[in-house]
Specification:
The structure holds 2 protein chains of 2 kinds.
Chain A (H helix, E strand, L loop, with lengths): L3 H7 L6 H14 L15 H4 L21 E5 L2 E2 L10 E3 L16 H8 L1 E9 L2 E12 L3 E10 L4 E10 L4 E10 L4 E9 L4 E10 L4 E8 L4 E10 L4 E10 L4 E10 L5 E10 L4 E10 L6 E11 L5 E10 L4 E10 L3 H8 L5 H17 L5 H18 L1
Parallel strand pairs in A: 1-5, 4-6, 5-7, 6-8, 7-9, 8-10, 9-11, 10-12, 11-13, 12-14, 13-15, 14-16, 15-17, 16-18, 17-19
Antiparallel strand pairs in A: 1-2, 3-4
Helix pairs in contact in A: 1-2, 2-4, 5-6, 6-7
Chain B lengths: L1 E10 L2 E11 L4 E5 L6 H9 L4 E10 L2 E2 L5 H6 L2 E4 L6 E5 H15 L7 H14 L10 E2 L5 H15 L3 E5 L7 H12 L7 E6 L4 H4 L4 E6 L2 E6 L1 H10 L1 H10 L1
Parallel strand pairs in B: 3-10, 3-11, 6-9, 9-10
Antiparallel strand pairs in B: 1-2, 1-4, 4-5, 7-8, 11-12
Helix pairs in contact in B: 3-5, 5-6
The chains are: A alpha/beta, B alpha/beta.
Amino acid sequence: MTDFAAISQSLGGGDLASVRERGRERLATSGLPGRKSEDWKYTSTQPILAIAFEGGDPPGLPNGPWRDGARAVFVEGRFDAGHSALPDGVVLLAEDPSGLGEVLGEPSGFDAVNTALLRDGVALRVDSDVAEVFHLVHLNGTGASALRTVVHVDANCKIRIVEHLLGSGAGLTSSVTEIRLGQNAEVQHLKVQDVGSGFHVGTLVADVGRDARLIAHSVALGGRVARTDFRARLSQGASCDLYGLTLASDKQVVDNHVTVDHAEPHSNSTQSFRAILDGKARGVFTGKVIVREDAQKIDSDQQNNNLLLSNDAVANSRPQLEIYADDVKCAHGATVGRLDPEAEFYLRSRGLSALDARAMLTYAFANEILGTLPDDDLRSWLQSRVRAWLEGAE
Amino acid sequence: MLELKNLQARIGETEILRGLSLTVKPGEIHAIMGPNASGKSTLSKVISGHPDYEVTGGDVVWNGESILEMAPEDRARAGIFMSFQYPVAIPGVTVSYFLKAAVNAVRKSRGEKEIDAFDFLGLARAKMKTVGMDDGLLHRPLNEGFSGGEKKRTEIFQMAMLQPALCILDEMDSGLDVDALKSVASGVNSLRSPDRAMLVITHYQRLLDYLVPDFTHVLVDGRIVKSGGADLAKEVESRGYQWVRDEMAAS
């Protein structure tokens, strides 16, 4: 049985000790979502809470797009200076906890876990157009470890951030990322979750300022249970495009839980989440779009498409629209299906084997999400990761 | 080259082909005309191996061997190509990605070396020129958002890349205006060769003005009821399919 408070206590004093204590207090008050939690309706926390999460065995740093350029590497929640190259404007939270405020919006029980386990993280202030991609890499083993990323982007400034969560063993990787965008700012965020047989619970919370743009992609390649909450509040003229791609097999459960709050008029959002589910995997999507009473001229489109590769895979899709304004355009659609036999025949009639035809169609399904990634290098890196996954799934 | 011997086929419980016989030799162009529901599209799908169609009698013989048990991909690798009436759109894959995989699948089956990305692009650009296409299409998602003409031209381009021995053109003229029709037909004409046969399946004669057949066959109720030269197509067009039916009834 997991005892997050005890794990938190065991991290001792020193850096961020008072922050962790605050997390424990909040955790004691809020508790963790249980069987009856509406927000965790299709994803059981039981497999996570059955594990003691004794630390150890983090993976080494593999090769990847983080190899050159600006990067911050963390091992079991602690900064690894030897592998990192911090860009200007980045402050380590363990050195200066002042960058750490309250988690935006309505923090969940697992956000409190993140605070209770926090040993480090980054606070990043962006005051120019940053051309270089900033990579955050978190390596976790069998323990429960946390990372916090706090980003402030000043008006008219822009940055691209990639979070890589890599795991080996049945650990828990917790992440909370807070992004505040000033007027007309832009953030392109990508999370690549590859925690193997481990667990992941993460939150991406954004306050998207006037006319600002958030483009966030989340790619799930691993995780016995992986849950990501997205919470975005949009000011006037702001836009938020969220994309998700899940590749899951065996008994994996990948749950994406989106809340987009159109708090002010003329704000736009899209949510496009796709899952490829093999074996006994489960893909869960909840997409809540709130349009506030005075938030007119809203354009929102939500799509959740699930491709089942086996008879035992399951997809749960829940659109939740709460619309209190009358001059809005909110579309949503969800599909659960298999590969199109006509498309398969088309490819086979050109000489592709049945296996190759199905692999190409599956790749095509995933590639519609990857194709929206603005960064060419990251896109082709992920395309090859997806192809490798598909070859392994066959 | 291709022999259809008393071919009978059905989809579900519906009998569609009821004893169709036809011999096609290298270099020949055969037009198959017929009214709606006469079995035209079934014929093309049965030859290319669509899994929904069941052959209940007769045979399809290709270069001396029955291909009824062959998978569609093996028929393609053996040189049979069908241009689809309604090509399928696959939004997540570009024309070039798809076609490179197809070309290499065919090359591999022939024991040839796979073509690399550079040589593929060179070849593709050259072939696009011969069929009158803009190579910008290479990087667009396959058939996604293509106009009717672009879809059909892309089919012809695939044909040019795969160099099949038999081209089955299934209602290639459907949904095309005259200009698009002319340009698609000229692409097909550029692929005519003494080694390559074509089976042009159409409801209307107008395509055959630009793609002149050596033989014309009229298909009614799953059988070829009348065969002739290029003139037969014009006669059918002016007198209608009812004329053929009436003639059948009279004989």
